[in-house]
Amino acid sequence: MPDRLSALDASFLYVEDHATPMHVGGVAVFERPSSGFDYEQLLTLIGQRLAYLPRYRQRVLEVPGHLARPVWVDDVDFDLNYHVRRSALPEPGTDEQLFDLVARLMSRRLDPERPLWEAYFVEGLAGDKVALVTKTHQSVVDGVGTIELGQLILDATPQDPEPLDDTWTPRRQPNRTQLVLDAISETVQRPGELVENVRSAANDAAATAEKVVEALGGVASAVRTVVRPAPAGPLNVRVSGGRMFAVVRTRLEDFRKIRAEQGGTVNDVVLACITGALREWLLSRGSALTSSTTIRALVPLAVRDAETAEYSTPGLVGNQVAAYLVDLPVGEPNPVLRLQHIGHAMADHLNSGRSVAARALLTVGGFAPATLHSLGARAAGTFSSRIFNLMITNSPGPQVPLYAGQARMVEMFPVMPLVRNQALAIGVTSYHGGVYFGLNGDRKAVSDVDILAGMIEESLEELKGAHW
For this UniProt entry, what's an example GO CC term (predicted)? Predict the structure, then answer.
């Protein structure tokens, strides 16, 4: 039988358009070792690891007449050099130049005629650093059969590149007749899918939503419990095709100190910092705030499979990411009370018995946040954009250095996708003593995303200086 896309994976292809490409990105910055680290070494490293990620050498093939969902097939013309590209900044490249490049790369859709991922090796950064910018479509990473590329190429110790001995041979693609015969065979068994597939491929939003609800069951059922839409505001506008990207660098020790004084979790403190920044950003735009004003965030969190006794890798990332709706109290002027409100709102998750502690997540091999951010975006994709204002993902990473070949990674910033009518998405990752925020904003609606990034730093300082 063909390797057919799941209903959820197909839905990400159906809803994608030029303004809302459905890929998750990452920006990893590396120190170039004295032995060097160049494009050819990265190409060799990725080529070595692709044997563990067969999906990265497969493309999507449509079924004639949309009689069934598309299928995954080996790309007989697979070209690693096409997917791993080389770029450079004018030396010495600045943060502003790098993140402007990231914004432009993330605004472009992936080529549907090829495997749905790209990586860019960016040279010329100040301090003899290089960056790796990755883009992976949400239909690719499911956390079980396929993890994110960034998780696979990083190691706990420096590794010498090995000669590339690629023996992969693509399987022959099915012809149109075979695709139709397979679709007819499946339709005979499930006749209701024929009409559903045609409607979904025609961008019927209701049909696509129905597919997603059917695919995720319990997670999507949470949507039906929400009876009121998200508050209106400047974050909910139809997005353009352009992007702005900004980052925040903070220290994990600061978040731990605040948590120790106030209780709750590091994630609560992260959300409180973002809440304080959003409050100041809204005020800077002349928004009228009252004590009850909120912004609703969709916060995907890793959960443990209810039937899994141990925190195994499949139990952590096998689609076990649940999306929680949290009303951020941007109308509250007191930073301590903001943190307390968020702590109470997140308590239900902690009390569910399915939450995953940060230390358990760190048992997942490689740089798991890359995969968990992708799974968070998948979970967010099951919710109507009308019931939340922005997405915030936060995934803990290892507190020891990781390496791509001989090059040590010094920073990593997630780039979360925007959905229709939502102009801002924030990803947060902790790594080796740092907490790194990536803010992806619409170029028209949130052109001042760099100002908002600075306000997150100010919000953290406000919490650090608050009297408990």
Answer: plasma membrane
Q: Name the domain count of the chain.
A: 1
**Is the link from the previous residue into 92 a cis peptide, with omega within 30 of 0?**
yes
The CATH number of the domain holding residue 365 is 3.30.559.30
**Residues 226-285: tens digit of each pLDDT:** 447 888 889 999 999 999 999 999 999 999 999 999 888 999 999 999 999 999 999 999
pTM for the full model?
0.86
d(CA 182, CA 116): 24
Q: Which residues contact 9 (CB under 8 A, 6 or more apart)?
A: 138, 139, 142
Q: Give the Cα separation of 149 and 141 in Å (integer).
A: 9
Indicate whether 106 belongs to any domain: no
Q: How far apart are CA 328 and CA 295, in angstroms?
A: 5
Range of the domain at 309: 220-465
Q: What is the pLDDT of residues 91-102, one digit of tens each?
A: 999 999 999 999
| Distant-in-sequence, close-in-space partners of 367: CB < 8 Å, separation ≥ 6 | 150, 151, 154, 397, 398, 402, 409, 412, 431
Rounded CA-CA distance 42/422 in Å is 35
* Domain-embedded: residue 71: no
Residue 145's pLDDT is 66
The pLDDT of residue 131 is above 90: yes
Q: Which amino acid is at 121?
A: F
Q: Residues 425-436: pLDDT tens digits?
A: 999 999 999 999
Question: Is 345 buried (19+), middle (13-18) or exposed (0-12) by CB count in 10 A?
Answer: buried
Provide the angle, in degrees to the nearest 10, between the axes of the packed helices 205-216 and 192-201: 120
In 154-202, where does DSSP find H-type helix? 176-189, 192-201
Whose CA is closest to 41, among 405, 408, 410, 409?
405
Interacting residues of 107 by C-beta distance below 8 A, sequence separation 6+: 21, 241, 242, 243, 443
Q: Is 438 among the domain residues?
A: yes
**Residue 365, Cβ neighbours under 10 Å: how many?**
12
Task: Give the single-character DSSP code of 190.
Answer: -
In a domain, 145, yes or no: no
- Residues 6+ positions from 353 with CB-CB distance below 8 Å: none
